[in-house]
Write a structure and sequence with these properties.
Blueprint (H helix, E strand, L loop, with lengths): L2 H10 L10 H9 L9 E5 L4 H14 L4 E4 L11 E3 L2 E2 L2 H21 L6 H15 L4 E5 L16 E4 L7 H4 L3 H8 L9 E3 L4 H13 L4 E3 L6 E6 L2 E8 L2 E8 L4 H15 L9 H10 L7 E3 L2 E3 L5 H14 L5 E5 L7 H9 L4 E4 L11 H9 L6 E3 L3 H12 L4 E5 L2 H11 L20
Parallel strand pairs: 1-5, 1-6, 2-5, 6-7, 7-8, 13-17, 14-15, 14-17, 15-16
Antiparallel strand pairs: 2-3, 3-4, 9-10, 10-11, 12-13
Helix pairs in contact: 1-4, 2-5, 3-9, 3-10, 4-5, 7-8, 11-12
Length: 444
């Protein structure tokens, strides 16, 4: 396969395959020489914030000088984004070669009845194989969905991390926070440290119980809260410390109060790494300062891109908007996937919008049709609500509705954010710059 054929093969597997717990993954990895065995890693689960937490971890480990693999999902613009080493995406030719190799094993498994790997299992096998063959010092691995039976749960991490847990994918993971927490907690391994982001006792009790059962040292970030927290529109400063990482002041360039929680969670995980993978206070500080995570409260001219796609993410977005966009006219460009809590998302977004433009993200069969989405918003706001034929038209409409000094907020789906980012690559120079309060951050 060449690169285009490899990506087409991977995308062609969406909606196909048969999930059998972790059986497919173990069978496929055996054929590849078990690349996950001996791979040192940090494993990160959660409903919201796990990607940002991974970005903080990756940046701090690289600042220490380690060769770091990073596996995340979904991608925004190119499939290659999902797997990186020291910040660089997997090269096209490497992805093509590994996909060809993995595809041959997948075909053999299917023909023999050994298993029918899913698209995420295939991607995970490619990433783990690449990391192992490139001999990374450590890999940061983000869980795809859930925890217990997620394809990434074949790894044996140095530290397991669970970010904020909320009600999402309830048909698959459970209808209560406790049920979802039990599934997410399935990534904990016997005797290996576990970190839980600060959250309610109902979730903490479940994760703590799993940690006790597995005799895994447990750290709940609620017991080590940050202090001197100062937020701006472009980042934050705060002080935090843990037994294995002395207290000091940190600066981050990822906006939103929730990113302070994600950064503190990353610091907690770093503090629990074994001695030969420790990160110095200086490297931790430099890494958190330099960490970036596109599509999460990302400013591009007068556009603010945020992948908030569930009620918890929308609450964080709403808090940010109420703090830093109060004096701006906000025109929202939004789209949602039908398997999300679209009504709750609309409720939160409508509260911060002066106008709403609804679109159906292209190439996504799961997208809510724009006219139907409009109906949800019109029932929740008396502000203008329009439907656009496509994202390009919707972006033009939102720019007009925002006005010269306004902000276009793109949210509701990471797929939509990815579409807009691709469009901006060729039109960045036409975007207006909108000043936002930034009292201390060293952002560009």
């Amino acid at each position: 396969m060449n690169y285009e054929q490899a990506v087409a093969y991977i995308h062609g597997k969406y909606g196909k395959g048969v999930k059998r717990g972790l059986d497919n993954m173990y069978a496929l990895l055996r054929r590849l020489g078990n690349p996950h065995e001996g791979l040192r890693c940090i494993h990160v689960a959660g409903t919201n914030g796990k990607g940002s937490t991974c970005a903080f971890l990756d940046a701090a480990l690289r600042a220490q000088g380690y060769r770091v693999g990073l596996y995340t999902s979904p991608f925004l613009m190119r499939y290659n984004e999902r797997m990186r080493i020291n910040g660089g995406e997997i090269p096209d030719e490497t992805l093509a070669a590994l996909t060809t190799e993995v595809a041959a094993h997948v075909q053999a498994m299917e023909e023999s009845g050994e298993g029918y790997p899913t698209v995420f299992e295939i991607g995970t096998a490619i990433a783990l194989t690449w990391f192992a063959r490139e001999k990374v010092d450590v890999a940061v691995i983000e869980v795809g969905l859930g925890g217990t039976h997620d394809p990434t749960n074949v790894v044996h991490p140095e530290v397991s991390v669970i970010a904020r847990i909320g009600l999402d994918h309830t048909k698959t993971l459970g209808s209560t926070l406790e049920e979802i927490a039990a599934v997410k907690g399935g990534i904990l391994k016997p005797g290996r440290p576990a970190v839980l982001q600060a959250q309610g006792e109902a979730v903490a009790a479940v994760i703590r119980g799993i940690a006790q059962e597995k005799q895994a040292p447990f750290l709940h970030c609620a017991d080590w809260p940050p202090s001197a927290v100062a937020l701006s529109a472009r980042g934050a400063r705060f002080t935090a410390g843990f037994p294995g990482l002395p207290a000091q002041e940190y600066e981050i360039r990822l906006p939103g109060a929730h990113q302070v929680d994600n950064a503190v969670t990353a610091l907690a995980a770093l503090s629990l790494l074994p001695e030969d993978l420790r990160v110095s206070p200086e490297a931790a500080r430099a890494g958190l300062r330099d960490a970036v995570w596109p599509g999460r409260l990302e400013w591009r001219g007068n556009l603010l891109l945020d992948g908030a796609h569930n009620p918890q993410g929308v609450r964080a977005l709403r808090e940010y908007a109420q703090s830093f966009l109060r004096d701006r006219r906000v025109a929202v460009l939004t789209g949602s996937m039908a398997d999300k809590d679209v009504a709750a998302i609309a409720e939160g977004i409508a509260a911060i919008a002066d106008a709403v433009v609804c679109v159906s993200p292209e190439h996504m069969a799961r997208a809510v049709p724009a006219p139907e989405l409009c109906g949800l918003y019109r029932g929740r706001t008396d502000k203008p609500v329009l439907a656009a034929e496509d994202t390009a038209q919707g972006l033009r409409q939102a720019q007009t509705l925002a006005g010269e000094a306004g902000v276009v907020l793109v949210c509701g789906s990471l797929y939509l954010v990815g579409e807009v980012r691709r469009m901006l690559e060729s039109s960045e120079s036409n975007l207006r710059e909108v000043e936002t309060e930034c009292t201390f951050c060293s952002c560009p």
